[in-house]
Amino acid sequence: MFDFSLDKPHEECGVFGIYAPNQEVARLTYYGLYALQHRGQESAGIAVSDGRAIEVHKGMGLVSEVFSNHIIKNLHGKMAIGHVRYSTTGSSLLANAQPLVVHYQKGMMALAHNGNLTNATELREELGLNGAVFQTTTDSEVIINLITRYRRESLEDALVKTMMDLRGAYAVVILAEDKLFGLRDPHGVRPLCIGKKGERYCLASESCALDTVGAEFVRDLEPGEIVVIDENGLHSRPGLRKNRSSSCAFEYIYFARPDSTIDQINVSESRLKMGIELAHECPIDADLVIAVPDSGTASALGYATTLGLPFGEGLIKNRYVGRTFIQPTQEMREVGVRLKLNANASVLKDKRIVMIDDSIVRGTTSSKLVAMVRKAGAKEVHFLISSPPVAYPCYYGIDTAEREKLIANRLDMEGIRKFVGADSLHYISEEGLLRALGTENVCLACFNGSYPIPVSDLNRGKNSCG
Ligand SMILES: O=P(O)(O)OC[C@H]1O[C@H](OP(=O)(O)OP(=O)(O)O)[C@H](O)[C@@H]1O
Ligand SMILES: NC(=O)CC[C@H](N)C(=O)O
Ligand SMILES: [Mg+2]
């Protein structure tokens, strides 16, 4: 049977950066991170710089738990970066929280990273042989070590050289030498966008964070691009030759906030279109369409509208639940799901239900929800999924579990249907998903095992650097 003891959301990290002398950069970063909280809940941190010295505060937990008004007020500087973490390489420990800060031959540097390197172990070994020491077990520390190693050249050249060594996914913000830098890997797997607030610039994993701090969206970083933000404004330096862009499809399906737009695709709109595609691929004669909130909501609306079916609030999400910290016993796991979601019997009773969620990963949530909806009186439960089956692990920064734990890797379609207990089960096709996204330039590795960036065997485990 499956080991459910590792049940937790499938997340990654969020980064934010701002260059704004005479503004409260720590507070703005705090708000930016608050908007990106869904990207990681294990730890949070903010580093501020006056152009020379860097101060950092980080801690385990949510942004609101790590920072108080007092702490924010005492972080002074003209620029800042921040990070919310969901660990992918290196355990969830304070020592691994970001931003990472180092002293090097030219002063101080702070770095925050979203993504996952696929050659971190090899790079770490090589750096270690050349005398580098490490204070964390993250892949992100490899990046900062490489930059300082190459810093005999100008900082921009050092960044280019570093990017030539790195494989994998990285959206990175850096404070160093009176400047704020942003880097995006040549495949553009993880998002990073630029905002303008007055005359000043900021960087964020998702555009929703720009809205929160009152910045105008300027554009996404190009794959392989480096941007430099300082007293003179913003300039771009082509870092590495851009590959065919492979931005992560899972960002649109599940991960990013619906009000964000990534690489010209609005997340909520793409989910709506996934629902429309599902309606074309699998029209079901039902009485009511419901969503697993929140990430299933837009798809369920698209499905219902296309087929002219009513949409109802069949499952209600407790808005105060972030992570459920589900205990590894059957009873506590069920409490965990019930704490987060509850069936609304008054709309479900005696109805034939189509229930739409964005994904099935390990299968834990789905089986509980189908049972819950039946218990609330539904006559039939048809379960539709707005992503193809997740059958391969992500090595680029989304923690979707090891291959053996993925239900689509273990069971065939009928086996999964039986496991979740639905009357019928249908996943969107890969073609349907691509039509909904309106581009083929996306990474679909977790669905089809075709990895756009090679992953060495040494980098296939969570603690591969530790
Ligand atoms: O098959 P599983 O391993 O249970 O994973 C699938 C579920 O996980 C995600 O939700 P999650 O509860 O992580 O977060 P959400 O509330 O943001 O949707 C996703 O939206 C599915 O509902
Ligand atoms: N999910 C992420 O983006 C995590 C960043 C980095 N790999 C870490 O584990 O700290
Ligand atoms: Mg969910």
TrEMBL record:
The keyword Iron is annotated on this UniProt entry: yes
Positions annotated to bind Mg(2+): 295, 357-358
Active-site residues, Swiss-Prot/TrEMBL: 13 (nucleophile)
GO BP term, example: 'de novo' IMP biosynthetic process
EC number(s) recorded for this UniProt protein: 2.4.2.14
Reactions catalysed according to its record: 5-phospho-beta-D-ribosylamine + L-glutamate + diphosphate = 5-phospho-alpha-D-ribose 1-diphosphate + L-glutamine + H2O
PROSITE patterns named in the record: GATASE_TYPE_2
Domain Glutamine amidotransferase type-2: 13-232
Positions that bind [4Fe-4S] cluster: 248, 394, 443, 446
The protein's role, per its UniProt record: Catalyzes the formation of phosphoribosylamine from phosphoribosylpyrophosphate (PRPP) and glutamine.
Name of protein: Amidophosphoribosyltransferase
Annotated organism of origin: Desulfosporosinus acididurans
Gene that this polypeptide is encoded by: purF_1
